[in-house]
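Note to self: the last two entries modelled the partners one at a time, which told us nothing about the interface. This time every component goes in together.
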Amino acid sequence: MILAEHDGKKLNNVVFNAIGAAEIFGGSIDLLIIGKGVDELARLASKIDGVDKIIKFDAPHLEHPLAEDAANIISEIGQDYRVILAPHTWFSRNILPRVAALLDVSMISDVLKITGDNTYIRSTYAGNVHATIKSDEPIQVFTVHSSKFKAVGLNGGDALIVDSKAPEPLNLSRWEKERKIESDRPPLINAKVVISGGRSLGSAEKFNEVLSPLADNLGAAIGATRAAVDAGYAPNEIQVGQTGVVVAPELYIAIGVSGANQHIYGMKDSRVVVAINNDPDATIFQFADYGLVADLFEAVPEMATLVSKT
Ligand SMILES: Cc1cc2nc3c(=O)[nH]c(=O)nc-3n(C[C@H](O)[C@H](O)[C@H](O)COP(=O)(O)OP(=O)(O)OC[C@H]3O[C@@H](n4cnc5c(N)ncnc54)[C@H](O)[C@@H]3O)c2cc1C
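The predicted structure of the combined assembly is written out below.
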């Protein structure tokens, strides 16, 4: 069973990678959709290749599924499954540990590779150590590092949709509000091009002023280092790294980013990495396909102008 992350209308793209991971086990695959008014979403999801069943819990109190309620649902039906998995995102990281606790099994997080026989390679220490783990649990509960698994298609599945009655809300926590960044840019997690800025940008105004023209001209999403977020230059939700979002775009441009392990963890699967830094010894250059030793305040506006002309 795969826990689907969605916004009520669309599945998060990484769900397709999680289904790809589930296929490795070779059994039937059920996709769990928890939400409110998700009939159409379930219908679309039923077309995903390789999915046998969509299990839908649709109720007003599940509009923003709270971790306790979601974990309660999954643990109730989870007894019937051999494997419960989800993409390694904030959403699932809040839910699956609770599921594992309720099912009284241990959980494995951030699986990079499934090698068979309930054995996994997972990332620890900000990706510096890869641990091989064998689980003897009767139900395997884990999250997967999405970029390491091939996404399945949406070409001609014909999954059965099963409506299930949601349990009453547990009311252990409540949904307050959601603050979304209104932007025409692609969402960070799915973007083909990401440009990330570091502490060196110096202020929120400069962060925006320097990075936005290049991002707009490239159709890119903007990311940030934790130092930039902590300094208040960028919102938390665009932090790339171990304690932020993990991205794997076609092109990642790191601007004034030192290349700390915790940042590298979040972008090292990018196909092409470009780094701009005025320190020729900056660690980020070790991870870059193309490096430019330059002052970002000169180089980035120049790049934005050149890109707009192509
Ligand atoms: C538990 C833990 C979790 C963490 N999680 C994350 C995480 O998820 N993501 C993350 O990013 N960090 C994370 N960090 C923080 C991480 O260790 C680094 O401190 C952080 O990534 C550094 O950010 P930075 O590169 O912006 O800043 P700095 O390290 O200060 O680097 C700034 C860089 O900009 C360059 N520079 C300065 N001026 C210019 C200029 N004018 N032109 C060009 N280059 C210039 C400098 O040479 C330097 O390389 C975590 C740390 C811990 C302990």
